[in-house]
Specification:
Shape: globular
Radius of gyration: 15 Å
Oligomer: single chain
Strand content: 25-35%
Number of helices: 1
């Protein structure tokens, strides 16, 4: 799916009542709603920033992985940088 700017009806970024983390919901013209958790948006922004600002980086691949040994407060499922594109 390729979402063009004109496909987007609107976007809401908020911290829903009773939550502590951001949610971003994209509303498409066809009625589809895509809601992303804060961690997903943060990972997309990290990858975007790396590609956009680094003089040599042209691509970042993130793969979802279960992480057993992780820092306190971090989720078990993480999007981590990967070498291959087999997603």
């Amino acid at each position: 799916m390729n979402i063009r700017n004109e496909d987007v009806k609107g976007v809401i970024v908020e911290i829903p009542e009773g939550h502590v983390h951001l949610r971003a919901t994209i509303f498409l013209q066809d009625g589809t709603e895509l809601t992303f958790q804060e961690a997903t948006i943060a990972n997309l922004l990290r990858a975007y920033t790396a590609v956009k600002t680094h003089p040599k980086v042209k691509k970042v691949v993130l793969k979802g992985r279960k992480v057993n040994k992780r820092k306190r407060g971090y989720a078990e499922w993480q999007l981590l940088e990967a070498e291959d594109e087999d997603i």
